[in-house]
Amino acid sequence: MSSAGLGRPIAFRWSPLVTALAFALPVVFVLAPLAIFLVYSFFSVDQGQIVYAPTLANYLRFFTDPVFLPVFWRTIVLCLSVAAISILLAYPTAYFLTTLHGRWRYVLLMLLMVPLLMSYVIKIYAIRSILGLNGFLNKALVGLGIIAEPSTLFVFNMNAILLTLTLLLIPFAILPIFLALERIPQVLLSASHDLGASNLQTFLRITLPLSLPGVASAASFVFVLAIGDFLTPQMVGGISGFTFGRILYSQFGTAFNWPFGAALSVALAMVVIAAILAGERFGRNRGASL
Amino acid sequence: MLLKRLLLGIASVGLGIGLMASSALAANLRVLAWDGYADADWVKQFTAESGIGVDVVFIGSDDEIWAKIKGSEGQDFDVFAVNTAQLQRYIKADLVSPIDLAKLPNQKEVLPRFRDLTQVSGVTKDGNVYGIPFCFDSIGLIYDTDKVKPAPTSMSVLWDPAYKGKVLAYDNGEHNFSFTALTLGYKDPFNLSAEQMAAVKAKLVELKRNVLSFYTTADEAQQIYQNNDVALIWANYGQQQVKALQKIGAHVAYINPSEGALAWLDNWVISKGARDKDAAEKWINFMVSKKVSGALSERTGFGNTVVESSSAGSNDKLVWLNNVEDPTKRSDQWNEIKATP
């Protein structure tokens, strides 16, 4: 008793501090940098020096300059396609995993996650040599007689970005779908069978609807990661694969126009936040109706 | 290349600081230089010949030189190396001292293009010499000798439809505007008028349609070369890039285009705060000796100012890089070019 009596005041004294710390970390490391970004987007640059006078010029330029909006939309469409293809490939994979039993399920899942342990840049390099004119893909297609001579369709264009991003991000789609599928109670499936539903009917009316929250988070994961990526387009996009991420990168890397870069980032952040909110809302609603 | 410089630089800075601390009392000559510009055996020989002790600090970037020199208003170093484009900034900020050419007998023996320093843009101001050229490399054209026949003489080959989809260009607006301006025959590629800018931009959009991809690092260009059908490479990394390609067995050769090749040039300069200007001039004179400059090219692959090297033939026209009229504008225009369908 006496030791508990001693312990309590100390815990009591420290707990506000712990709470403050818990709030301080995200504020200092997430909210503050975002706020600084937002503030910078209202500055401008003159002769390589940042002018700290508020202006809307950066946003005006984003909406009126004929360069930025088309690239912006094109990038969004590209990343939606990446998300869609990733889902189409990841769903059957995840479904197959849930049909496995015991240890194999997790061994295979681990194997599918192994690429995440490798360096991003090295993966892009590897994929780029596979897609190249003298690369593995072309050699295989020519060897199989599918195409007559090596094709430039797969590298240094939008296709290349689409393929590479899909390949890089597919583990992020498999995992949430797998988790959603695994969480579906077996009793529901048994009940469906008992009541005479066919496998297809069970899938369409039980499994698919219950796994949609997983699909929603998978889609938002992949979309957000794809749209923030500038390295992949830079390295495999060539001359036609120009994306918003590359413009953004150039504002910081070569143009030294941080305020304009910040404004473009804010535009991108809006899309990302919308995607995350949409993914989360869709996921939660479905989950709640369980 | 830069990365290697950076890593070596970081490794050497520690060593340099240690050396500085240990011998600060002896009033040694304090040298700030890129790795490869003050090798240990040269330093040893210089000390043996002149009796002057030397402390070397290596740097990894242009910004780092500026930070070190500006930070101490030139008091921390006696002599340092800086490129022509950067040097103007130091002269303007009054951080460097004029150099007495009478103290540099070796400068009279250098290659013809470096003999009259008023002809080397950026190293003189108001009749005073501020920089002694030491090391350079050109940004020329690499071509595949099996695929490009006859051998090209001008960058205009990059626009040749015969090589559509076989051209590797460099992802940098500033340089691309400069070299295209030279190809179009403009006198000053670093100060373009609005009209010239528009013409260059249109020309670059055409270039883009002939290009396979824009690369950023030498390794990247090499990897793309290996996996694709590449005939021409705009060689931002000059000799080092050629040699790396030849090492992997590529049949490539290098030219400096007849309209003039962009080239960087590093110079030795004496800081405003030099404790012993005489010793600094002795150092520079030693650096532009046949022996050191010859060894510099052998060891680094870059061109030197004393002995002919593969960076440039004696008749090649080199255009020393300078600050451009508006870097932000060039960068924006470059984005527009890339976004043009």
User: What's the Cα radius of gyration of chain A?
Assistant: 25 Å
Shape of chain A: globular
Per CATH, the class of chain A reads Mainly Alpha
Compute the number of helices of chain B: 12
CATH superfamily of chain A: MetI-like
What's the name of the CATH homologous superfamily of the largest domain in chain B?
Periplasmic binding protein-like II
Any idea of the CATH class of the largest domain in chain B?
Answer: Alpha Beta
Output mean pLDDT of chain B. 90
Distance between the termini of chain A: 46 Å
Give a count of the beta strands of chain B, DSSP E runs of length 2 or more.
15
Strand content of chain A: under 5%
CATH topology label of chain A: MetI-like fold
Helix and strand run of chain A? HEEHHHHHHHHHHH
Explain what this protein looks like in three dimensions.
The complex is a heterodimer of chains A (290) and B (341). By secondary structure, chain A is mainly α. Chain A has one domain (65-288): MetI-like (MetI-like fold, Orthogonal Bundle). Helices cover 76% and strands 2% of the residues of chain A. Chain A has a two-stranded antiparallel ribbon with strand order 1-2. The model of chain A is unreliable at 1-7 (pLDDT under 50). Chain B is an alpha/beta fold and 341 residues long. Chain B folds into two domains: 2-135 and 265-310, D-Maltodextrin-Binding Protein, domain 2 (3-Layer(aba) Sandwich), CATH 3.40.190.10; 141-255 and 321-339, Periplasmic binding protein-like II (D-Maltodextrin-Binding Protein, domain 2). Chain B has helices spanning 2-23, 40-50, 62-71, 84-92, 112-115, 173-183, 194-210, 218-227, 238-247, 277-287, 290-300, 327-339, and strands at 29-34, 54-59, 79-83, 96-97, 124-125, 128-129, 132-139, 141-144, 167-170, 211-215, 232-234, 252-255, 261-271, 303-304, 318-320. In chain B, strands 1, 2, 3, 4, 7, 13, 14 and 15 form an eight-stranded mixed β-sheet that branches. Chain B has a five-stranded mixed β-sheet with strand order 10-9-11-8-12. In chain B, helix 6 (173-183) crosses helix 7 and helix 7 runs parallel beside helix 12 (327-339). The two termini of chain B are 33 Å apart.
